[in-house]
Amino acid sequence: MKQSELLFRNEVCLEDQRKMKLAYCLISECSQEGQSEPYYGIRITKHLGNSEETEEVNGVSYCKETVISMIKKLFQYEVTPVHLVEIVDGFITQGA
Q1: Model pTM?
Q2: How do the domains of the chain map onto residue ranges?
């Protein structure tokens, strides 16, 4: 069963004065029934006007603290859903 926990929110004022809202969530899911240790992923949702865009990366790590650290960096740099996969791939490659 997949669970999602909202960790951070950003509201960014764009050049044209519109407000973009970003939500950063920790996803936890057990890969197999009966497995007690969940693996963790990341979801970013962007709200702009009446549109919503979401992207998620599942199974990033079994270490919750590692994934929370990644989410904190994504939040600090106001990363949008379109860049999530590429940036998480970079974190994993660098061993962040």
Answers
A1: 0.90
A2: 3-94
